[in-house]
Amino acid sequence: MALPLHAEMSERIWYYTFRTLCGMIFFFLIFPILVMFPLSFNAEPYFTFTPEMLSFDPAGYSTKWYEAFFTSGTWQAAFRNSFVIAIISTLISTFLGTLAALGLSRPEFPYKTAIMGILISPMVVPLIISAAGMFFFYSRIGLQGTYIGVILAHAALATPFVVITVTATLVGFDNSLLRAASSLGSTPTRTFFHITVPLITPGVISGALFAFITSFDEVVVVLFVGSVNQRTIPWAMFSGIREQISPTILAVASILVTFSITLLTVIELLRRRNERLRGVSAA
Amino acid sequence: MATSDTKANSDVLTTPDGTPLKVALKRTLWHRKRNALLLVAPLFLFVLVTFLFPIFDMLSRSVDNTALVEILPNTTALLAKWDDSKGELPGEEIFKSMVLEGQVAAKEYNITKVGKLLNYKKSGMSSLFRKTGRKLKRFDPEKLETNYTDMLLGIDKEWRDIEVWQVFKRQSGIYTASYYYSAFDAKMTANGLAMKDENKQIYMTLFVRTLYMSSLITFLTVLLGYPIAFLLASLKTRTSNLLMILVLLPFWTSLLVRTSSWIALLQKEGVINDFLVGIGLIGDDSRLSLIHNQTGTIISMTHILLPFMILPLFSVMKTISPSYMRAARSMGATPFTAFRRIYFPNTVAGIGAGGILVFILSIGFYITPALVGGTEGTMISNFIAYHISNSLNWGLAAALGTILLLLVLALYILYDKIVGIDNMKFG
User: Fold this and answer.
1) CA of B47: which chain A residue's CA is closest?
2) Disulfide engineering: B225 pairs with which of A131, A280, B75, B309, CB 3.0-4.6 Å?
3) What is the structure's pLDDT at A157?
4) What is residue B166's predicted lDDT score, i.e. its pLDDT?
5) Number of alpha carbons in the 13 Å side-chain half-sphere of residue B352
6) Helices B255-266 and A9-34 sit at what angle, rounded to 10 degrees?
7) Which parts of chain A sit beneath pLDDT 50?
8) Across B44-61, average pLDDT
């Protein structure tokens, strides 16, 4: 969309105004995320830039909030809980979600819209309602305040993402590949592991990453279904912001952003691989 | 006859083992259908048990009144038959049942529960039942002097108040609509449904505020998202992929991370205020209050939800061929006319899709308003949470939740009509 040489004055003005405007919106999008990195190295317990920091005085900077994070028992326990809960619930939701997506993608599947609607309902219902419902029900059956309760709740919340991602991978799936395998004498099991699995793997992995992020970032449900023993990172941040606000939260936030940049890169690479495999990225 | 029979038989195609092809095909199809269903069944059951059932169970609390009926079964049954429009106190029979059942309930420490439930409808009921319960525990029916009516009136003269009995009667069914009345700021009186006093109408204000804030946030995301999506869609793929990172990074960043960074930016001693004071735009004593109010909620939620608007808009704009615009220009349209008459109408579906998505997400928001909303920037979800964990008025929480859920489902059906669930994508 480069500006042509014959552009009129008004077009030139509009072109640069529009670019500036977009630049400002991009700034609005990204600034709140980037600003945390310098702020988390603040030597003072404030949420803002101190005069020392602005004059680039080394005394204004410190890594003590990172030390606080790595030495605090509460934060370390929260970190462990987040990973344990996210990994197990990801395994459950990926397994169940992939199976369901395989079934849903078959052309002969009956009542597809209705069943799909039910399966993705955990993504649609406002979190506070899910949290309240699970709180009452899990309390009654004795799962409130247990790891199992939180893991089941998170698995339920994450399955829609797996179902949708894997179903999307299967949309471009060429069924004649399966017929070709059968006609060449392959058993259904062999066909599944040698043809279907390699083709859907990228979709399954990105679905699993979505499921992981969903659980790792979730706070409302864990606040209601969990107890202090299941305190996760988002929970610790939530109560940290409410009670004693300290730049440790910004240090944790910076670590999380680094983490999500890594995940984002992985997903992007997988997406490219998937497109290459299906031969649609030629354009 | 015989010839036509043979002819018909030879028409029916059969598989090698002699079954008619139609039957065999039907059977195969049925097997495939069953296999497909079997694959979906585990997840279906899982979602049903861990998710859907708990939600229905919780929402049913909004009409559930069995607690009261279980504690005082006979009294509630009698009250249901009592005619409260005459303005007279109930008869001796009801008083007797109230005293006897009340005594059992008091000994099991249940009578205060009744008082608590009725106190939502009329203040003072809780203390009346607590006091009555205390006295009833020590009461011996053998030593009754006159009758049960006088006895109960002797405990507390509040029982003489007909309104107490009217409130009680209205709560004597297994189901109650009273939580919904409360959720709409109405109450049941002897003369039918009436709105509460203007200054007590908190929930209508809250719903209106939630809808207003969500609409404003949706509007702001369209306003900010449209130019970005337009730019991304019109740039070369290499450049737009690079700029897309600036949209995807916030999208992938934890909600709490973004909320806490907005706290750092917006607070009184925060980055934005410091900057404005630093460049001399505002005085040190007149720092802006950008947080713990509606402004804070709206700014941070607009930021959080902006990617949800940009991504659908971008995918719609990607499909609009640039030759449309070129054709319009070549036929003499000014850039603005070409945009207004050709480009914009093609993007309306994208605005609709992104708009509904942002709106659905924002009316259910809880965390961000709770942290940056103060009192005037909170939304309906925050009140539901408050009634569940603080006031313990679960019936009202369930009623508010049901209304919110119905609203979201209606919008979601609309979304499905415009976009289709199958077309939903992430990232």
Assistant:
1) A156
2) B309
3) 95
4) 83
5) 16
6) 100
7) 281-283
8) 93
**Residue recorded with tokens 């449904």:** B193
| Predicted TM-score of the model (pTM) | 0.83
Mutate to test the interface with B, among A14, A15, A25 (most CBs of B within 10 A): A25
Chain B residues 173-192 with CB within 8 Å of chain A: none
Helices (H), B171-293: 178-183, 202-234, 237-252, 255-266, 271-278
Contacts of A183 (CB under 8 A, 6+ apart): none
Residue B242 has a pLDDT of 86
Torsion of Cα atoms, A119 then A120 then A124 then A129, to 10°: 40
Among B261, B336, B391, B423, pick the best mutation site for testing chain A contact (most A Cβ within 10 A): B261
Residue B112 is encoded by which pair of tokens? 């205060």
Buried/exposed code over A195-214 (b: 16+ C-beta within 10 A; e: otherwise): bbeebbbbbbbbbbbbbbbb
**What token pair was written down for B51?**
């998710």
Q: pLDDT by residue (tens digit) across B152-193? A: 888 888 888 888 888 888 777 778 888 888 888 887 776 777
With contact defined as beta carbons under 8 Å apart, do B323 and B368 qualify?
no
**Residue B2: its pLDDT value, please?**
45
pLDDT at B149: 83
**Strand, coil or helix: B13:** coil
CB neighbours (10 Å) of residue A71? 9
Interface of B with A in 257-316 (CB under 8 A): 257-265, 267, 269-271, 274, 303, 306-307
ipTM of the complex: 0.86
Question: Which positions in chain A touch B243 (Cβ < 8 Å)?
Answer: 26
pLDDT for res B427:
40
B58 touches chain A (CB under 8 A): yes
CB count in 10 Å sphere of residue A74:
13
How does residue B119 score in pLDDT terms, banded at 50, 70 and 90? confident
Q: What percent of chain B has pLDDT over 90?
A: 26
Among A275-279, B206-210, B407-411, name the one with the lowest average pLDDT: A275-279
- Judged by CB atoms closer than 8 Å, whether chains meet at B40 and A99 is answered as yes
Cα separation, A195 vs A172, in Å, equals 14
Q: What is the DSSP string of A105-139?
A: TSTT-TTHHHHHHHHTHHHHS-HHHHHHHHHHHHH
| Residues contacting residue B135 through CB under 8 Å, at least 6 positions apart | B155
Measured between alpha carbons, how far is B366 from B384 in angstroms, rounded to an integer? 9
Q: Tell me whether residues A264 and B248 touch, CB distance under 8 A.
A: yes
DSSP SS3 for B396: helix
Cβ contact B148:B96 at 8 Å: yes
Three-class SS state of B408: helix
Instruction: Give pLDDT, residue A282.
Output: 37
Helices (H), B319-390: 322-330, 335-338, 344-363, 367-372, 380-389
Count Cβ atoms within 10 A of the Cβ of residue B221 and give its class: 0-12 exposed, 13-18 middle, 19 or more buried. buried
Q: What is the pLDDT of residues B280-317, one digit of tens each?
A: 888 888 888 888 899 999 999 999 999 999 988 998 89
